[in-house]
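Mods, move this if it's the wrong board.
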Amino acid sequence: MAGAGQAREEVDLELIKTLVRAHAAALRDDTALLTELGLRPDAANVVEFGPVALSRVSAAHRREASERQRLEAVARANFEAQAQTHAAVIDLLESRNLADLARRMDELTRLRFGLAVGVLALEGPGEAPAGWMSLVEGQIDMILGPRRLARMGCVPVATGLFGDMAQEIGSVAVVRLAMWQPARQGLMAFASTDEDAFTADMGVELTAFLARVIERTAERWPAP
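Not the wrong board. Structure tokens:
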């Protein structure tokens, strides 16, 4: 059905072109129609673009320029995020122990990414390393949902991860960690005071990549 409609539209367009060519003189003499189309005849009897047509062209150009600028801004932001992520990986790999890993994670969160706080957490049984938040069994599934890898955006059940800053948090990125054998479940969490810093429709590729780096780095040392 769509193909047939398209064919009819093309036939009609060709018919219109033929009629316009056949009656060009009448069209040039119809001032009201030309005005409606945003065209105007000049003294030499040549049809020129009038103010309406020019404004349409100008508006289309502005839309194109605006969209191009938006795409360029997104590309720049993505490039900057990737560059900072790669630099953050180097910082994490230089960790000396589990406590230093947590310290570096919080530090790069603020200095490299301009966020409010970064947290590493470990679920029981057993204790969490120094600098890591201790979570009770089942708390990670409560925050993320069973078998869910990550959550982005406004996640009220995650604000407790950020201690005294909980009331200031606007949005978060939370990613599940799995470390050691037998496996211990953990979380890597970033938080911002800006509600739009993380949104539910954002991709999780870069944060998930950092989480994998945290996992591999943590496994250099025995489980606590």
